[in-house]
Amino acid sequence: MTNRAAAALLAIAGLAAASAGQQARVNGSSWMHDIWQTAALANKTLLDITLPGTHDSATFTLQDHFAPGSNALLEDIVRLADKLGINAYPLVIAWATAQNITLKQQLDAGARFIDLRACWSEPSEADPSAPTGWHTFHMVLGLPIAELLDQIAAFLDEAPGGEVVVVEVTHLLGSNATTQAQLRALLEAKLGDHLVRGMQFNATLQALTQGATKSRVLVLLEDWDGDGSSTGLWPDALIRGEYANQDNVPKMAEWDQGLIETLGGTGHIFRLWWTLTENVDDIVAGVLDPSKYPTKLFDLVRLANAQLAGWAAANRNYTLGNLLVVDDFENSPALEIAVADALRNCLDDPQLRARSPSGDDCRSWGIAGDCAASGSHGDFVRAHCRRTCLQC
Fold first, then answer.
1. Which neighbouring-strand residues pair with 120?
2. Which one-letter DSSP state was computed for residue 67?
3. Helix or strand or coil: residue 37?
């Protein structure tokens, strides 16, 4: 375990001290299976836990081809530079790379949410050598979707049972009804029996994994309104939570603070992005003065990841998303935060779970000091708001 991971565990003060030893020994490839009993995962749902995940998950390998319609101005600049004998693709790729390890390695490291930005690519007048087919992208093309699904399937095949992965497939640039149908067929063919179907997405983990004997993948697909319980492909409208679109930590944290104060307990999968977003000024500044300004996305990522554990500790009474999404997953404390939260082994009553900064719910009562109140109301709060009152 890294020093950062150890620091994260220390930072999540108030977590059950008895489970600290188990946290320290967490194995990323099987962590849900390993804490199944201790964290009482069987009767919890995806809406009751936090899964750590990766943003722009497939950017570990990128190509010198722009995704269709991704950024016309940037595309023109890079192609103009190419005519002048300047290869600007390395600069674009430096700012597009959010993960350094493969999907299989991310899952083995403990990630349980995969963010796939998909596009249909084919040769064009502007790029006659572009590959044909479904690829991932972040400004530029990544690997074929088929190869990435093989990595996810390989992890699920090897997992001991009890692991649940959420995969969101979005954007679908350059596609039409025909190619989108091909994508759905590809998802079903590659992930097959691992798909969550025949039940609701918010079934208990016991049901999803057949008592921790199977590992499953919940696939959420943009522009799709089909019946997930029969097809195994679910509408991504089930997810709530947009990213901050900021390039500095304080503004991003302020945005996320607003999300945790409003989205917890709404009945949707709550996605929390702990990620920074570059802008043109960042890129230009790094080119003009690389000794003073960031020259790649990872320069911003380090700033964000260094502050995640402290922010999580300060907000430990909140749901930090059902999906806690980060860049550079292997060097973030996201897994330790998720495991520590699961090992608290307690939940507020679903009808009383935090829903607003103030009002008639567990968070409001906790802020008002009602956890220590005497009389029947105080007894009620302590009985129904164990998470908020830190009595678990």
1. 134
2. P
3. coil
What ranges do the domains of the chain cover?
3-345, 352-389
Distance CA 321, CA 48 (A): 9
Distance CA 328, CA 339 (A): 18
CA-CA distance, 215 to 57, in Å (whole number)? 20
Model-level pTM?
A: 0.87
Per-residue pLDDT reduced to its tens digit, 139-195: 999 999 999 999 999 999 999 999 999 999 999 999 999 999 999 999 999 999 999
23: its two tokens: 């946290």
Amino acid type, 296: K
CATH superfamily of 3-345: Phosphatidylinositol (PI) phosphodiesterase (3.20.20.190)
CB-based contacts of 17, cutoff 8 Å, min separation 6: none
For strands 113-121 and 133-138, give the pairing: antiparallel
**Which CB contacts under 8 angstroms, 24+ apart, belong to 383-387?**
384/348, 384/349, 384/352, 385/348, 385/349, 385/352, 386/346, 386/347, 386/348, 387/317, 387/344, 387/346, 387/347, 387/348, 387/362
Contact 29, 159 (CB under 8 A): yes
Locus of tokens 């996605």: 271
Displacement of CA 260 from its chain's centroid (Å):
15
Q: Is 263 helix (H, G, I), strand (E, B) or coil?
A: coil
d(Cα 329, Cα 332) in Å, to the nearest integer?
5
